[in-house]
Structures are given as structure tokens and as C-alpha cells.
């Protein structure tokens, strides 16, 4: 709480692809997860053990299944999730399609329903706002950086009906030997 106003601290991850792309989440991501009020995972967990580990180490976990998630993961998760935190409406989905036309497609699917859409799939961080005002956020991937210089995840606070500053964190690179 800040000056009597409840604040919810949120960590967003996606595309962890465990254990194929990494054996575990990086230590800074686990520290962020354990400190957060809510953890959101936007799909492509790839194994049930990751779902269970995040459930055990999160105060509250919200997640969706991704295109690489099998029946073991899907037994725990839906394709989409909607939640409201301190007056801000969030949608969570894995895929939003190609970057070209993303804002238009997301407006058509989500405008009027959510204020912020959290998504994954591309492994590329994304932060834009659609013409109708839906904020689109993709945290990238903390474990499978693809064409990015480092792995990434996002954090932000929600209070009094507003989304605070969105911080994109970069996973520190291991020292070269």
C-alpha cells in the first residue's frame, strides 16, 4: 500500500520452454516471481513441472496454454484468461498473430473487454497501444532469446485503476570463460 492505496506488483513471463531451452528459470526471474503479488505466464511452459513450480513459488499465478504446451500443461490452464487488478482489466493469451496488423486484430478481439493484453509467442518484447486504447505487452522470453540480445521479462505495479511504469528486465548474460 502506498498512502493508503493498494498496490499490486505483477511479474509477466512467457515462452519459458522448460526444460528444452533451459533447465530452469534464471535466478533473477525466480527472485522476481517470489517477490510479486501476481505472476502471469503467457504460454509455452512446455512441461507440467514448470506450472507446478511457478504455482508453488507464486502468491498468485495466472497463466494460459501456448502452442507448444501438451496435455499435461493444458490440464491446468485455459487458452485465455481475464482478470482485474485494482481496477485495471487484463487479458492473457499466447498468440496474437504476426506483428503486422497486431493492433487492429487485438482491437477487434479485445477492445472494450480489457485495458491491457498480455501475450507471448514471438519471444520478442512488445509494448504498444492499439488505436482504441488497449495496451499490448509481451515480456519476451527469459530462457529462449531467439534474435534478442538477452532473455527478458516484465514487471509493473497496478494501483487505483492505473498501470504503473512497465519495466522490461534483461536476464544477465553468463560470463564468458
TrEMBL record:
Gene3D superfamilies tied to this protein: 3.60.21.10
EC numbers for this chain: 3.1.4.-
Q: What class of enzyme is it?
A: hydrolase
Would I find Acyltransferase among this entry's keywords?
A: no
Record keywords? Metal-binding
Q: Name one Pfam family in it.
A: Metallophos_2
Which cofactors must be present for this protein to function?
a divalent metal cation
The answer to whether keyword Transcription regulation applies is no
List residues of the Calcineurin-like phosphoesterase domain: 9-160
Family membership: Belongs to the metallophosphoesterase superfamily. YfcE family.
Name of protein: Phosphoesterase
Q: Which species is this UniProt entry from?
A: Kineococcus endophyticus
Q: What is the lineage of its organism?
A: Bacteria, Bacillati, Actinomycetota, Actinomycetes, Kineosporiales
Amino acid at each position: 500500500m502506498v498512502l493508503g492505496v493498494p498496490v499490486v506488483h505483477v511479474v509477466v513471463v512467457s515462452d519459458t520452454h522448460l526444460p528444452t531451452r533451459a533447465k530452469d528459470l534464471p535466478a533473477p526471474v525466480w527472485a522476481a516471481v517470489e517477490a510479486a503479488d501476481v505472476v502471469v505466464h503467457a504460454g509455452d511452459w512446455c512441461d507440467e513441472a514448470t506450472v507446478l513450480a511457478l504455482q508453488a513459488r507464486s502468491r498468485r499465478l495466472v497463466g494460459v496454454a501456448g502452442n507448444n504446451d501438451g496435455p499435461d500443461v493444458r490440464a491446468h490452464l485455459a487458452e485465455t484468461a481475464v482478470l482485474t487488478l485494482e481496477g485495471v482489466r487484463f487479458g492473457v493469451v499466447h498468440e496474437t498473430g504476426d506483428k503486422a496488423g497486431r493492433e487492429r486484430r487485438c482491437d477487434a478481439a479485445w477492445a472494450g473487454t480489457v485495458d491491457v493484453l498480455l501475450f507471448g509467442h514471438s519471444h520478442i518484447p512488445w509494448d504498444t497501444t492499439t488505436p482504441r486504447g488497449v495496451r499490448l505487452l509481451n515480456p519476451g522470453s527469459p530462457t529462449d532469446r531467439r534474435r534478442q540480445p538477452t532473455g527478458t521479462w516484465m514487471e509493473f505495479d497496478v494501483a487505483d485503476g492505473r498501470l504503473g511504469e512497465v519495466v522490461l528486465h534483461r536476464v544477465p548474460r553468463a560470463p564468458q570463460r
